[in-house]
Amino acid sequence: MQLDPEYLRQHYASLSDQALLAVDRADLVEMAQVIFDLEVGRRKPVPPRDTRHGQPTIPRQGDPLDEEADDEEADDDEAEVDEAEVDGETHGAGEEPGWLEEAAEVYSYAVQSATAHAPDAVNARDALEAAGIPCYLDLCEIPREESLSPYGTHRWRLMVPGKLNLRATSVLEREIFNVEFEAGWKTHLEALSDEELRAMNPQVAFGGLYDRVARVNRVYEEEIARRQMK
Predict the structure, then answer these.
(1) In terms of DSSP bridges, do strands 154-161 and 136-141 run parallel, antiparallel, or are they unpaired?
(2) Are 35 and 100 found together in one domain?
(3) Average pLDDT of 165-191?
(4) Number of compact structural domains in the chain
(5) Is 54 within a domain?
(6) Is 9 inside any structural domain?
(7) pLDDT digits over 47-65, tens only?
(8) Cα angle at 107 between 212 and 77, to 5 degrees?
(9) How many angstroms from the chain centroid is the CA of residue 61?
(10) What is the pTM of this model?
(11) Per-residue pLDDT for 148 more than 60?
(12) Beta-strand pair 103-111/154-161
């Protein structure tokens, strides 16, 4: 069965940092390795450091957190934060827009505390505002049972009116994610030998993406024709 690059991209993007770091790259086929490398490069997840040996390690389920992490978590729990800051700016502390109850989340970014800066979230917000799309950036606490700790205890969410979901997602893909993807893809190609580069066919490696675009256009034209709008 042929692998779908878009499915792999969405699968790796859905993994927590811990789960992503637990993937054994050597077990993946070449195309999956490419997409895996791009996702790792986009996130740049940092494994927790084993203070006993001074080396990064991936925690196993059930491993106790070190005392320093426990102390930091206790401090976070006890701290009362009236206003949350993102990259030096206050967000999510003002009046909520009326459309928030029917809003769609188009971007999220996990942070390790309620006061951590999130410049990537600010960049996403700025891209939407530049495109004239109303948005709201707020901070929510990740439930303890779902927490990515030590990778994240809170999550910045970028919300837009539900009816603008597809448009906002498209803007973020074009202005942020596609730029990052292009840089990762360029780095990957530069690392290939001449023989490997000649054998690489983007339309095969990313056949799922090409197929999706073709389907989007076809279905749209069919709906236009069905309504006799031409």
Answers:
(1) antiparallel
(2) no
(3) 90
(4) 2
(5) no
(6) yes
(7) 544 433 333 433 333 444 4
(8) 150
(9) 23
(10) 0.58
(11) no
(12) antiparallel
In this structure, is residue 220 part of a structural domain?
yes
pLDDT bin (cut points 50, 70, 90) of residue 3 is low
CA distance 43 to 129: 23
Out of 122, 137, 169, a domain closes at 169
Which amino acid is it at 199?
A
Mean of all residue pLDDT scores within the chain: 75
The DSSP bridge pattern shows strands 49-50 and 55-56 to be: antiparallel
**One-letter amino acid of 90:** T
Q: Do the domain assignments include residue 116? A: yes
Enclosing domain of residue 149: 75-169
pLDDT at 94: 55
Give the whole-angstrom CA distance, residue 215 versus residue 11.
21
Which of 154, 169, 184 marks a domain boundary?
A: 169
The pLDDT value given to residue 38 = 77
- The answer to whether the Cα torsion of 156, 158, 162, 167 is positive or negative is negative
Q: Look up residue 50 and give its two tokens.
A: 């084993």
- Whether residues 98 and 145 share a domain: the answer is yes
